[in-house]
Design goal:
- With 394 residues, the chain is an all-alpha fold.
- The longest helix has 41 residues.
- This is Gamma-tubulin complex component.
- GO terms for molecular function: gamma-tubulin binding; microtubule minus-end binding.
- Component of the gamma-tubulin ring complex (gTuRC) which mediates microtubule nucleation.
Length: 394
């Protein structure tokens, strides 16, 4: 380009629009670059090359992310659609977390009636009896006809010599197990599995479901089931008592309601919300592990909550002791205006006084934990047990 005097003038500097046009052709187009009567300096060409490299790198990352996202979505769909993972979560909730009330009530009543009848461990914990109890409980269950109900079976952790009297965890030797499988397990309905009941195998989880539902997860489910069974034993113990039973029954019902609300509803709803937004298999695994962690934590089944759980177990032991004192001797004939009297009435009064002491002590401990900001979920427990300010006014 020439100046007005006819001499060669300085090179025309490229405008920003021209630079962007060059970037487009250099980075994204296979069309021949048109001749443009501009001259780039070496520094400007290096800047254009650098910008193109950054642009191409971004495009490659977007392409890789799009490909990975599709693969991860395919894996998530495979677990929930092909392997029916959601149905396994629901089955574990129905049976091991006792969300199915008819199943839980029938199962516990059948076990405790045989226990109360004085059956020995060898009689009650035999494969024939346990399989019969489970089959009858599933007949009453709202979900007994589901294909995953066939994955349930009883197993013994150990065979006690005798059942300890007045022990809340008298059936801690017994486990209800669930086989996580892509197909129903028909062993319980087919040939007898006596050896499996007496010598239980480890938790059985088929691959690849064991990536999400690990043996450790199923062990936590078993721990929650064991504690829920203790609560059922307390309710069964108190249902036929007349003296002092209302306060004891209130305490046990409150504890049972708190556990059911925090595990079956609050933790489950949070878990379902997390599952609705998962993007890959690792997120499913984390969501399930977090769900179980919250269930165990809110159920006071962690090591840090052991002091609180020890107080609850002491209360449970007193409830069982109270019933033993009641049924150990018959009521005496009416000897005065107060009507029939019980020979163990004084002992029952002592047990009731000890129950009141421990229940009030538990209320104070939980109140301090809540006031200090520890375990805020215990506010639900305080609201339930002290709804009419009974413990606060005492």
């Amino acid at each position: 380009m020439a100046s007005a005097a006819g001499r060669p003038g300085p090179a025309q500097r490229p405008t920003p629009a021209v630079v962007e046009l060059w970037k487009h052709y250099l980075c994204c187009s296979d069309v021949p670059v048109p001749r443009i009567s501009v001259i780039f300096s070496l520094e400007e060409l290096k800047d254009v090359e650098k910008d193109c490299a950054i642009y191409v790198g971004r495009m490659e990352r977007v392409a890789r992310h799009s490909s990975v996202s599709k693969e991860e979505k395919a894996v998530v769909d495979y677990f929930f659609v092909e392997l029916n993972l959601g149905a396994h979560f629901e089955a574990l909730r129905h049976f091991l977390l006792m969300e199915d009330g008819e199943f839980a009530q029938s199962l516990s009543d059948l076990l405790f009636e045989k226990l109360g009848a004085g059956q020995t461990p060898g009689e009650l914990l035999s494969p024939l009896v346990l399989n019969s109890v489970l089959s009858k409980a599933l007949q009453y269950s709202l979900h007994g006809d589901s294909p995953h109900a066939a994955n349930l079976s009883f197993a013994l952790k150990f065979l006690p010599e005798t059942f300890a009297p007045n022990a809340p965890d008298v059936l801690s030797c017994l486990e209800l197990r669930y086989k996580v499988s892509s197909a129903p397990w028909r062993g319980r309905w087919g040939s007898p599995r006596d050896a499996a009941v007496l010598s239980p195998p480890p938790w059985q989880v088929d691959w690849p479901l064991n990536i999400v539902v690990t043996e450790g997860c199923l062990s936590r489910y078993g721990g929650i089931f064991s504690f829920l069974l203790q609560l059922k034993l307390m309710m069964w113990t108190l249902k036929d008592l007349q003296l002092f039973k209302h306060e004891m029954q209130h305490f046990v019902k409150v504890t049972q309601g708190y556990i059911a609300n925090q595990i079956l509803h609050v933790s489950w709803c949070e878990f379902q919300a997390k599952l609705a937004s998962v993007g890959d298999l690792e997120e499913i695994q984390r969501a399930h592990a977090e769900y179980l962690h919250k269930a165990v934590f809110r159920g006071l089944l962690t090591e840090k909550a052991a002091p609180v759980m020890n107080v609850i177990h002491s209360v449970f032991s007193l409830v069982l002791k109270f019933r033993s004192q009641l049924i150990s001797q018959p009521w005496g004939p009416a000897g005065g205006p107060r009507g029939p009297e019980h020979p163990n009435f004084a002992l029952m009064q002592q047990s009731y006084s000890a129950f009141k002491y421990y229940s009030h002590f538990l209320f104070k401990v939980v109140s301090k934990l809540v006031n200090r900001g520890y375990q805020p979920h215990l506010e639900d427990f305080l609201l339930r047990i002290n709804f009419n300010n009974y413990y606060q006014d005492a």
